[in-house]
Amino acid sequence: xxxxxxxxxxxxxxxxxxxxxxxxxxxxxxxxxxxxxxxxxxxxxxxxxxxxxxxxxxxxxxxxxxxxxxxxxxxxxxxxxxxxxxxxxxxxxxxxxxxxxxxxxxxxxxxxxxxxxxxxxxxxxxxxxxxxxxxxxxxxxxxxxxxxxxxxxxxxxxxxxxxxxxxxxxxxxxxxxxxxxxxxxxxxxxxxxxxxxxxxxxxxxxxxxxxxxxxxxxxxxxxxxxxxxxxxxxxxxxxxxxxxxxxxxxxxxxxxxxxxxxxxxxxxxxxxxxxxxxxxxxxxxxxxxxxxxxxxxxxxxxxxxxxxxxx
Amino acid sequence: xxxxxxxxxxxxxxxxxxxxxxxxxxxxxxxxxxxxxxxxxxxxxxxxxxxxxxxxxxxxxxxxxxxxxxxxxxxxxxxxxxxxxxxxxxxxxxxxxxxxxxxxxxxxxxxxxxxxxxxxxxxxxxxxxxxxxxxxxxxxxxxxxxxxxxxxxxxxxxxxxxxxxxxxxxxxxxxxxxxxxxxxxxxxxxxxxxxxxxxxxxxxxxxxxxxxxxxxxxxxxxxxxxxxxxxxxxxxxxxxxxxxxxxxxxxxxxxxxxxxxxxxxxxxxxxxxxxxxxxxxxxxxxxxxxxxxxxxxxxxxxxxxxxxxxxxxxxxxxxxxxxxxxxxxxxxxxxxxxxxxxxxxxxxxxxxxxxxxxxxxxxx
Lengths: 311, 364
Hints:
The structure holds 2 protein chains of 2 kinds. By secondary structure, chain A is of the alpha/beta class. Chain A has 11 helices and 12 strands. A 6-stranded mixed beta sheet of chain A has the order 1-6-5-2-7-8, with helices on both faces. In chain B, α12 (286-295) links the parallel β9 (272-278) and β10.
């Protein structure tokens, strides 16, 4: 009986030791598997994220790209008056064809070009010219970049640069391009740009969109005093004033009007004095003191309207 | 279906415009109410009697005008800018404007919340640069002019309509003619050679009858068929009202304001007095005129029938702040004796001078 129990014990030991080494092997195998698995996963994830990051960097680079228009002589950015117009205001979608339809800002653009023509006629080495930039402000438009360029060429528009932005950073690109005047049909865009200190005008039912010989800019005097604190506004007024002075009192291709809607003659006189101190002498001036502005605006027919509660 | 939509959308647009107008008006009202200087605020244009005066009628700019004509617009603007801080001397419409301010003060006393007042707008062709001197001059005399229209060379006619102008006074006969053609009461002002002492607490306005308050239909008969035909015709049609003339609406506007004083028992002390000064005679052709006025529901305070006598001496006695006549002959007579006169270039009287037909230059 005792022998068999020893045998049993020995057998047990054998089993136990065999079991122990087996367990170790299993443990080892498990560790190895886990290790292999995790490293493979890590490598995979790393590769994946790197590709993702690279994609995002590429996309960021794509988000705003400024392209010079080779068909048009580039202006001297330090001396020119840079005007950025939202693409959708100049070129409207057309379902068919390679070329867009003209938008509400088209006559305005032609008026800007006409002023440039007159300036160059008077002085062939003139550097104070309008430097026009077309900017897209959403992704959909950004994707139509090729069509935008070809439409511009088709209509012979004197656009020096295109700014293809997909929306988020379009204001940054305006500042980078030293834009002094921004024009758009979207109230939110205009408000956003004004907040960053760049004079901007809403194009639409209060501005003129038929062909005309003369570029007409209207400044709402009630805001002039407030805006005078901003250096960007002052610079814009002084450049516009200098441009206006290149022409005589009568027959100028650019005309500047000032209108105060609410205050009396004191505010009116102050607005005129403020503009004059920045070098801008208005041609027309109207003090409404509460009179309805609709009929007056219909007569003034401005292409560009700055201020007046439209921000 | 689409028609209804179009109507709706234009209605929506109109409503939106109205809302904007109300906002502007409310903002202006608030602005003036918060001013510490207690300046009276300008009335709402739709309710007010709007008088548009040009810079040359409000101020004497004869010397400056010479510079404009002889040396051109650039020199003129430069001169005005140089002399910006020198107030200009009063022009022909100055006394008239001061009288309007007096009436406004009385109206504000009696009706503090009413918008039915005189509204004075400076309507000038000048550039905004010249405007600074005009504003300085207005400040100097403390005139209540808060609305300005400096058109920088463009025609003022559109702006006259935009302000719903009841009367336009200018020194430029072409602009005045254009305004009359567009249905706006207008007259070309002349500075008298001597200055009469005028009443400072009552606005006195004198009108000629034919071709000013009334149409020129009777005038035509006189010129083409002679005085006898004229008398016969007037007698025959005594009860038929004459057609209205270019200044009838202005008389109507004055009458509306006068009635506001009558309503407050101020008839004897009314600060507006109107005069009819006509070459017609009371005995014969005068009746038709009075009956016409009555049919229009209008009245004049004094009707003076001169039966052809010169108007100058009588006007010198009346001393109006402004006298409207369609014939230069009468204007010249009034001027000589110190009456501020305003020529209304309307009707057949323009083709004649001192009873003789003027040779019209052949139109090319």
